[in-house]
Design a protein that fits this description.
The protein is mostly helical. The chain has one domain. Helix content is 66%, strand content 0%. Helix 7 crosses helix 9. The protein is globular and about 55 Å long. It starts with a helix and ends in a 24-residue tail after the last helix.
Length: 285
Protein backbone atom coordinates (compact mmCIF):
# COMPACT_ATOMS: atom_id res chain seq x y z
CA UNK A 1 0.00 0.00 0.00
CA UNK A 2 2.85 2.38 0.85
CA UNK A 3 4.57 1.76 -2.48
CA UNK A 4 1.29 2.27 -4.36
CA UNK A 5 0.65 5.55 -2.52
CA UNK A 6 4.14 6.79 -3.28
CA UNK A 7 3.81 5.95 -6.98
CA UNK A 8 0.28 7.33 -7.32
CA UNK A 9 -0.40 9.74 -4.45
CA UNK A 10 -3.24 11.64 -6.16
CA UNK A 11 -5.12 8.51 -7.22
CA UNK A 12 -4.63 6.97 -3.77
CA UNK A 13 -6.02 10.08 -2.12
CA UNK A 14 -9.02 10.30 -4.48
CA UNK A 15 -9.86 6.62 -4.06
CA UNK A 16 -9.73 6.90 -0.27
CA UNK A 17 -11.73 10.15 -0.18
CA UNK A 18 -14.48 8.67 -2.35
CA UNK A 19 -14.50 5.34 -0.48
CA UNK A 20 -14.67 6.91 2.99
CA UNK A 21 -17.41 9.40 2.12
CA UNK A 22 -19.46 7.13 -0.12
CA UNK A 23 -19.40 4.32 2.45
CA UNK A 24 -21.56 6.60 4.60
CA UNK A 25 -23.61 8.31 1.89
CA UNK A 26 -24.54 5.43 -0.41
CA UNK A 27 -26.47 3.49 2.27
CA UNK A 28 -28.44 6.67 2.96
CA UNK A 29 -29.24 6.98 -0.75
CA UNK A 30 -30.28 3.32 -0.97
CA UNK A 31 -32.63 3.82 1.97
CA UNK A 32 -34.22 6.79 0.19
CA UNK A 33 -33.34 9.16 3.02
CA UNK A 34 -34.02 12.86 2.47
CA UNK A 35 -31.68 15.14 4.42
CA UNK A 36 -33.27 18.47 5.24
CA UNK A 37 -32.58 21.47 7.50
CA UNK A 38 -33.77 20.47 10.96
CA UNK A 39 -34.14 16.79 10.04
CA UNK A 40 -33.07 13.81 12.12
CA UNK A 41 -30.61 12.35 9.58
CA UNK A 42 -27.27 13.91 8.66
CA UNK A 43 -24.69 13.51 5.92
CA UNK A 44 -22.02 15.34 7.93
CA UNK A 45 -19.80 12.34 8.85
CA UNK A 46 -19.21 11.70 5.14
CA UNK A 47 -17.83 15.21 4.75
CA UNK A 48 -14.72 14.15 6.69
CA UNK A 49 -13.67 11.71 3.96
CA UNK A 50 -11.24 14.06 2.13
CA UNK A 51 -9.49 15.10 5.36
CA UNK A 52 -9.06 11.53 6.59
CA UNK A 53 -7.88 10.45 3.12
CA UNK A 54 -5.35 13.29 3.03
CA UNK A 55 -3.88 12.29 6.38
CA UNK A 56 -3.76 8.58 5.51
CA UNK A 57 -2.09 9.20 2.15
CA UNK A 58 0.34 11.72 3.65
CA UNK A 59 1.30 9.26 6.40
CA UNK A 60 1.93 6.56 3.79
CA UNK A 61 4.15 8.67 1.56
CA UNK A 62 5.82 11.12 3.98
CA UNK A 63 5.42 9.63 7.45
CA UNK A 64 5.01 11.71 10.58
CA UNK A 65 7.03 14.60 9.12
CA UNK A 66 4.48 14.99 6.32
CA UNK A 67 1.57 14.71 8.75
CA UNK A 68 3.15 17.48 10.81
CA UNK A 69 3.56 19.75 7.78
CA UNK A 70 -0.05 19.21 6.71
CA UNK A 71 -1.27 19.91 10.23
CA UNK A 72 0.80 23.09 10.36
CA UNK A 73 -0.99 24.42 7.29
CA UNK A 74 -4.32 23.99 9.09
CA UNK A 75 -3.22 26.73 11.49
CA UNK A 76 -1.21 28.84 9.02
CA UNK A 77 -2.04 32.55 8.91
CA UNK A 78 0.15 33.78 6.06
CA UNK A 79 1.69 37.23 5.77
CA UNK A 80 0.64 39.90 5.17
CA UNK A 81 -2.23 39.10 7.54
CA UNK A 82 -4.50 41.66 5.84
CA UNK A 83 -4.32 39.73 2.57
CA UNK A 84 -4.92 36.46 4.40
CA UNK A 85 -8.15 37.71 5.99
CA UNK A 86 -9.36 39.46 2.84
CA UNK A 87 -9.08 36.25 0.86
CA UNK A 88 -10.32 33.94 3.63
CA UNK A 89 -13.45 35.94 4.39
CA UNK A 90 -14.19 37.35 0.92
CA UNK A 91 -17.53 35.46 0.66
CA UNK A 92 -18.82 37.70 3.45
CA UNK A 93 -18.67 40.57 0.95
CA UNK A 94 -20.79 38.53 -1.47
CA UNK A 95 -23.27 37.76 1.29
CA UNK A 96 -23.35 41.41 2.34
CA UNK A 97 -24.12 42.53 -1.21
CA UNK A 98 -26.85 39.89 -1.47
CA UNK A 99 -28.44 40.97 1.82
CA UNK A 100 -28.42 44.62 0.75
CA UNK A 101 -30.16 43.71 -2.50
CA UNK A 102 -32.67 41.56 -0.61
CA UNK A 103 -33.35 44.42 1.82
CA UNK A 104 -33.90 46.80 -1.10
CA UNK A 105 -36.40 44.35 -2.62
CA UNK A 106 -38.07 43.73 0.75
CA UNK A 107 -37.19 40.02 0.77
CA UNK A 108 -34.66 40.01 3.62
CA UNK A 109 -34.78 36.60 5.38
CA UNK A 110 -35.09 36.15 9.13
CA UNK A 111 -31.81 35.89 11.04
CA UNK A 112 -32.82 32.44 12.32
CA UNK A 113 -32.83 31.16 8.72
CA UNK A 114 -29.03 31.50 8.66
CA UNK A 115 -28.88 28.70 11.24
CA UNK A 116 -31.05 26.27 9.26
CA UNK A 117 -28.59 24.05 7.42
CA UNK A 118 -29.20 20.67 5.77
CA UNK A 119 -28.11 17.82 8.01
CA UNK A 120 -28.21 19.80 11.26
CA UNK A 121 -31.04 19.80 13.85
CA UNK A 122 -33.21 22.91 14.07
CA UNK A 123 -32.64 23.24 17.82
CA UNK A 124 -28.94 24.05 17.45
CA UNK A 125 -27.85 27.62 18.18
CA UNK A 126 -26.35 29.69 15.36
CA UNK A 127 -22.81 29.67 16.91
CA UNK A 128 -22.90 25.85 17.09
CA UNK A 129 -24.12 25.62 13.49
CA UNK A 130 -21.25 27.88 12.40
CA UNK A 131 -18.73 25.72 14.28
CA UNK A 132 -20.02 22.46 12.81
CA UNK A 133 -20.08 23.81 9.25
CA UNK A 134 -16.52 25.11 9.67
CA UNK A 135 -15.26 21.79 11.03
CA UNK A 136 -17.07 19.44 8.65
CA UNK A 137 -17.57 21.45 5.43
CA UNK A 138 -14.54 23.67 5.89
CA UNK A 139 -11.76 21.52 7.31
CA UNK A 140 -13.37 18.17 6.49
CA UNK A 141 -13.13 18.96 2.79
CA UNK A 142 -10.30 21.48 2.47
CA UNK A 143 -7.60 19.48 4.26
CA UNK A 144 -8.01 17.10 1.34
CA UNK A 145 -8.94 19.17 -1.71
CA UNK A 146 -6.72 22.21 -1.25
CA UNK A 147 -4.41 20.85 1.46
CA UNK A 148 -3.34 17.67 -0.32
CA UNK A 149 -4.56 17.53 -3.91
CA UNK A 150 -4.35 21.06 -5.32
CA UNK A 151 -0.59 21.54 -5.34
CA UNK A 152 0.07 18.11 -6.77
CA UNK A 153 -2.46 18.50 -9.56
CA UNK A 154 -1.18 21.96 -10.45
CA UNK A 155 2.40 20.71 -10.48
CA UNK A 156 1.40 17.93 -12.87
CA UNK A 157 -1.22 19.60 -15.06
CA UNK A 158 -0.53 23.34 -14.78
CA UNK A 159 -2.22 26.06 -12.75
CA UNK A 160 -5.60 26.26 -14.51
CA UNK A 161 -5.97 22.66 -15.67
CA UNK A 162 -5.00 21.44 -12.21
CA UNK A 163 -7.65 23.62 -10.54
CA UNK A 164 -10.33 22.59 -13.06
CA UNK A 165 -9.46 18.90 -12.81
CA UNK A 166 -9.75 19.13 -9.04
CA UNK A 167 -13.16 20.77 -9.56
CA UNK A 168 -14.32 17.74 -11.56
CA UNK A 169 -13.04 15.36 -8.87
CA UNK A 170 -14.74 17.46 -6.21
CA UNK A 171 -18.02 17.48 -8.15
CA UNK A 172 -17.92 13.71 -8.66
CA UNK A 173 -17.38 13.16 -4.94
CA UNK A 174 -20.76 14.84 -4.29
CA UNK A 175 -22.74 12.43 -6.53
CA UNK A 176 -24.38 10.26 -3.80
CA UNK A 177 -25.59 13.48 -2.16
CA UNK A 178 -27.76 14.17 -5.19
CA UNK A 179 -30.13 11.45 -3.97
CA UNK A 180 -30.13 12.43 -0.30
CA UNK A 181 -29.57 16.15 0.36
CA UNK A 182 -32.73 18.16 -0.23
CA UNK A 183 -30.97 21.08 -1.93
CA UNK A 184 -29.46 18.79 -4.57
CA UNK A 185 -32.40 16.42 -4.89
CA UNK A 186 -34.75 19.27 -5.75
CA UNK A 187 -32.59 20.36 -8.71
CA UNK A 188 -33.49 19.29 -12.23
CA UNK A 189 -30.87 17.19 -14.05
CA UNK A 190 -29.77 20.05 -16.37
CA UNK A 191 -29.27 22.30 -13.32
CA UNK A 192 -27.22 19.63 -11.56
CA UNK A 193 -25.02 18.98 -14.58
CA UNK A 194 -24.74 22.58 -15.77
CA UNK A 195 -25.34 24.81 -12.78
CA UNK A 196 -23.82 22.69 -10.04
CA UNK A 197 -20.96 21.34 -12.18
CA UNK A 198 -20.08 24.77 -13.55
CA UNK A 199 -20.42 26.37 -10.14
CA UNK A 200 -18.17 23.90 -8.35
CA UNK A 201 -15.48 24.20 -11.04
CA UNK A 202 -15.66 27.98 -10.63
CA UNK A 203 -15.32 27.52 -6.89
CA UNK A 204 -12.28 25.31 -7.45
CA UNK A 205 -10.59 28.00 -9.55
CA UNK A 206 -11.29 30.68 -6.92
CA UNK A 207 -10.15 28.43 -4.07
CA UNK A 208 -6.91 27.76 -5.96
CA UNK A 209 -6.36 31.51 -5.93
CA UNK A 210 -7.26 31.76 -2.23
CA UNK A 211 -5.05 28.87 -1.12
CA UNK A 212 -2.05 29.84 -3.17
CA UNK A 213 -2.19 33.56 -2.34
CA UNK A 214 -2.16 32.61 1.36
CA UNK A 215 0.97 30.42 1.04
CA UNK A 216 -1.04 27.20 0.85
CA UNK A 217 -2.97 27.82 4.06
CA UNK A 218 -5.63 25.17 4.66
CA UNK A 219 -7.13 27.53 7.23
CA UNK A 220 -7.75 30.15 4.53
CA UNK A 221 -9.43 27.63 2.22
CA UNK A 222 -11.55 26.24 5.07
CA UNK A 223 -12.70 29.72 6.14
CA UNK A 224 -13.55 30.63 2.56
CA UNK A 225 -15.49 27.39 2.04
CA UNK A 226 -17.31 27.84 5.34
CA UNK A 227 -18.28 31.48 4.78
CA UNK A 228 -19.37 30.78 1.21
CA UNK A 229 -21.60 27.91 2.33
CA UNK A 230 -23.25 30.11 4.94
CA UNK A 231 -24.23 32.45 2.10
CA UNK A 232 -25.29 29.76 -0.36
CA UNK A 233 -26.40 26.60 1.48
CA UNK A 234 -28.70 27.74 4.29
CA UNK A 235 -32.45 28.24 4.23
CA UNK A 236 -31.79 31.99 4.20
CA UNK A 237 -29.77 31.71 1.01
CA UNK A 238 -32.51 30.17 -1.12
CA UNK A 239 -33.47 32.32 -4.06
CA UNK A 240 -31.92 35.76 -4.47
CA UNK A 241 -29.15 35.49 -1.85
CA UNK A 242 -27.83 32.19 -3.15
CA UNK A 243 -28.01 33.46 -6.72
CA UNK A 244 -26.01 36.60 -5.91
CA UNK A 245 -23.29 34.83 -3.91
CA UNK A 246 -22.91 32.12 -6.56
CA UNK A 247 -22.78 34.71 -9.35
CA UNK A 248 -20.01 36.59 -7.54
CA UNK A 249 -17.88 33.43 -7.38
CA UNK A 250 -18.50 32.56 -11.00
CA UNK A 251 -17.60 36.10 -12.07
CA UNK A 252 -14.37 35.97 -10.04
CA UNK A 253 -13.51 32.60 -11.60
CA UNK A 254 -14.18 33.95 -15.10
CA UNK A 255 -11.78 36.84 -14.47
CA UNK A 256 -9.09 34.44 -13.23
CA UNK A 257 -9.53 32.17 -16.23
CA UNK A 258 -9.24 35.10 -18.65
CA UNK A 259 -6.08 36.19 -16.88
CA UNK A 260 -4.65 32.69 -17.23
CA UNK A 261 -5.10 32.83 -21.00
CA UNK A 262 -2.93 35.96 -20.94
CA UNK A 263 -0.21 34.18 -18.99
CA UNK A 264 2.56 34.57 -21.61
CA UNK A 265 2.68 38.23 -20.55
CA UNK A 266 2.24 37.81 -16.79
CA UNK A 267 2.77 35.27 -13.98
CA UNK A 268 -0.01 32.83 -13.17
CA UNK A 269 -2.54 34.17 -10.68
CA UNK A 270 -3.42 30.64 -9.59
CA UNK A 271 -0.01 29.68 -8.22
CA UNK A 272 1.67 30.64 -4.98
CA UNK A 273 3.54 33.90 -4.56
CA UNK A 274 5.21 32.91 -1.29
CA UNK A 275 6.14 29.25 -1.75
CA UNK A 276 9.33 29.81 0.23
CA UNK A 277 7.17 29.90 3.37
CA UNK A 278 6.19 26.28 2.68
CA UNK A 279 9.63 25.07 1.75
CA UNK A 280 8.15 23.16 -1.21
CA UNK A 281 7.82 23.82 -4.97
CA UNK A 282 4.03 24.12 -4.70
CA UNK A 283 1.64 23.97 -1.79
CA UNK A 284 0.55 20.42 -1.16
CA UNK A 285 3.69 18.78 -2.58
Amino acid sequence: MRNLARRHPILTFIALAYALSWAYWIPLALRGVLITPGGSVTHFPGLLGPAVAAYLTTALIDGWAGVGRLTGRIFLVSRPAVRFWLYSLSPLAFLGAALLLAAWQGTLPETSALGRYSGLPARLSLPLVLLLVLLFNGFGEEVGWRGFALGRLQARCGPLKGALLLGLVWAGWHVPSFWTVEGYRSMAVPVLIGGFGLGICAGSVVLARVANRTAGSVLAAALWHFTYNMGSATTASRGLIGMVTTSCVMTWAAVLIIQEFRRPTQPSRLLAEATAELGTPLPGN
